[in-house]
Amino acid sequence: MGVASCNKDDDEVLPPIGGFNNANEVAASNLVAHFGFENNGTETKSSATTASAVNASYEGGIKGKAVKLVKGYLSYNEIAALNSLPSNSISLWAKFDNNGTNPSVFFSLTRPNEWAGNLNLMSETGWKPAGNDTLVIKGLLVTKIAGNPSFQDSRNEPSKGGVQAAKGTNQWHHLVASYDGATSTYKIYMDGVKISNPEWELRGTTGPLSFTTPTRLIIGAWLPNLPGGTADAWQVPLTGSVDELRVFNKALTDAEINSLYALEKAGR
């Protein structure tokens, strides 16, 4: 007597989202760094490993594992691909609370001997007390103009209402800071939607960014928080979680950002 066989196809093919099958396909040729945090802090394109890891562990994230920091950080030595990003996008998932005392920094691409890096992505958690559900997501860039540092930031203004009245502490959110060097436009997105105040997205004639190098990437802290630095009272390492950090050497389009959000949210 023969044994009946089952021909069930276990390799289910999921429909594309925004024309992409998974997040790695989004602006693939422009991706210069990716951190998946699958039980380690290794950067997958260069294989760079952490120079130091302080108060860091790994937990379930938005896609696989995520790094959980308790007044902690991951720091890296120079990654050559990050030393020049005239246009760029920083994409990551973060989970954090307001605290009423200090900002929560997720990403800082440092300048030597300075607290503010060339590129920084944070939440102004120090502006709202614990228990307040309002989010203020802020990008800060510092570029050289005629050899001198020039600061530009972009963020949402909750009092404006609408998408700028972002909510949801202690929940996973997809955050993107995108700078277009051709138009000097700096935009902030949350969960696939642009939330930055249009009045603050274009300031002066910054143009393509010129970095102070060499850079060091820090996830969860400022440069003065590292050994040998002297941090101000408000410069406290992150208590929160970060997942799927990606750095691109171009300003992602709205459609690409929305697709990246949807794909990673779906675990793809």
Description:
The structure is a single chain. This protein has 268 residues and is mainly beta. It has a single domain, classed as Jelly Rolls. Helix content is 4%, strand content 34%. It has one helix and 13 strands. Strands 1, 2, 3, 4, 5, 6, 7, 8, 9, 10, 11, 12 and 13 form a 13-stranded antiparallel sheet that branches. Strand 10 (185-190) and strand 11 (193-194) form a beta hairpin. The longest helix has 12 residues, at 254-265. The chain is globular and about 55 Å long.
Overall 3D geometry?
globular
> Can you give the mean pLDDT?
94
**Which parts are unreliable, with pLDDT below 50 for 5 consecutive residues or more?**
1-11
Order of helices and strands: EEEEEEEEEEEEEH
